[in-house]
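Table S2 (continued). Query chain:
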Amino acid sequence: MALTGDANYFENFEVGQVLKHARGKTMCEQDNVGITLQVLNTAEAHFNEDVMQKNPMGRDGWNSRLQFGGVTISMIIGLTMQDTGENAVREMKLDKIRLKAPVFHGDTLYAYSEVLDKQDSGGDAGIVVFKHYGVNQKDQVVFEGERTVLIKKQPSARGES
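Corresponding output:
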């Protein structure tokens, strides 16, 4: 079942739970080239189609501009936010980042999250550790990473009505 909804308070997450996020994102020119240049990444593989067409790795499918890994990471984490970040109080850590396969313009990315750990920290929020996965339209894993988030408890658990 795909999520986009209200079940995103601390109490709603269970260790071992796997979430399939509802939306996908097709990567376009602006996603890659604009952001890549804004962060001063000048590697031609990200914005020079001519160079990539002549790439000796073209026989392995790398004959088109590559998506900058920072953009891939941001897009996957962004796709998870409606379900894992709506009630976030604080982003605590991003860890174990792995870019597993190249992403090209025109690829469509989808995201999944697994709840690895959950700790009640007392008070109005608790800590949840997610493992996020990004896959392309071919179901190839392109990204894996862990994210630790302090998430609000439900209003009733906080003594609110």
